[in-house]
């Protein structure tokens, strides 16, 4: 019985050992490279020859840099009028087409003019009647004046006739005022455009009875046109200072901020700041000759405040941001990466304007910062040409979408893609190091 126990124990040990041996050899590729026999190179660490990190360099330059302030605004018609009748009556004619461009004074609509024409004719007739009486009174006054001078007419009769002439003269003036009022009312029967603009959608059809509360059409002036946009209140001093020296240029951009819709000038800065948002309103005027701006449209606006002459600029990719603010890697004469804090005024069109921290002519790292640490030795490369020794680029180290990385390759394949490339070209050195030899197991 005791012998059977030892026999079963020995069989169990052999079974477990066989399972362990099987799975341990399945996880190891047959053609794996013996790491102890492969000499490590600088390229495996993402560095160039001699352990230097390949980077793309830029140069600090001086140039004139425009200073812009960006804000979002809304397009508004330069003038907008909702046309209302000023009298009541039947709309007998609509003389405009929807969407038609009209000139100032063009006929838009006609209200039945006959009642007001009759009032005007009556006022004219009344004036003619009073004018005849005035002429008769003046003739009698002339005769009475001769008799009064000869002493044949008493003072009372003479004065009565003289004041009658004055009374009729005032009546005639009143008649003229009535004619002017009737003429004004009559002119309201013909509704005209108040300025050059474009008609909107017709709101009342011909034949309807309209009153001063009725709306006929909305006329908007599109040339020129206005844009109202906002800026933070912190920009108010610089805007007022620049605006006091002369007109400021404003650009209206589309939603991509790459295509200019029109160029205009700043017209007014609002006289108060919105306390709820801490922003100020500005209004710019654009000629809008191509009608690319439309009332109610949202546009991006760029206000040119000033131009900094001989400003220091670097590519925008040079600027990095850390917990202590913005910084850049400067390449020293010994090809060492030196981290230096910088003050950035603005970043625009791929260029960063530097206030302090850099000097003209210094070389800075424009690409490859993710490999760097302060004091790292660097090797300058160009974007399209690898450094001498076939340095690894970011694309070489980062697998493309859908392609497994070195750590994610299927088991059973020996080495990385970089190692397989070296096997295809065994005579080509990398970074000045001798070619590594791989020993297959």
Task: Provide a descriptive summary of the structure in words.
Helix content is 27%, strand content 34%. With 441 residues, the protein is α+β, with helices and mostly antiparallel strands. It is built from 6 helices and 20 strands. Residues 27-45 and 386-441 have low confidence and may be disordered. It has helices at residues 2-26, 114-150, 155-187, 236-245, 394-397, 417-424; strands at residues 53-59, 61-83, 89-94, 101-102, 107-111, 190-192, 197-199, 209-210, 217-232, 249-253, 260-274, 279-286, 298-315, 320-322, 325-331, 337-341, 343-348, 351-356, 363-367, 378-381.
Annotation keywords:
4 domains; alpha+beta; OB fold (Dihydrolipoamide Acetyltransferase, E2P); 441 residues; disordered C terminus; Elongation Factor Tu (Ef-tu), domain 3; single chain; elongated; 6 helices; 6-stranded antiparallel barrel; 6-stranded mixed sheet
Shape: elongated
Q: H/E series, N to C?
A: HEEEEEHHEEEEHEEEEEEEEEEEHH
CATH arch. level architecture of the largest domain: Beta Barrel
pLDDT < 50 runs, ≥5 residues: 27-45, 386-441
Strand tally: 20
Name the beta content range.
25-35%
Structural class: alpha+beta
Helical percent range?
25-40%
What is the assigned CATH homologous superfamily of the largest domain?
Answer: Efflux pump adaptor protein, beta barrel domain
> Mean of residue pLDDT?
81
The overall number of domains is 4
Main beta-sheet strand count, sense and barrel state: 6 strands, mixed
CATH domain topology of the largest domain: Elongation Factor Tu (Ef-tu), domain 3
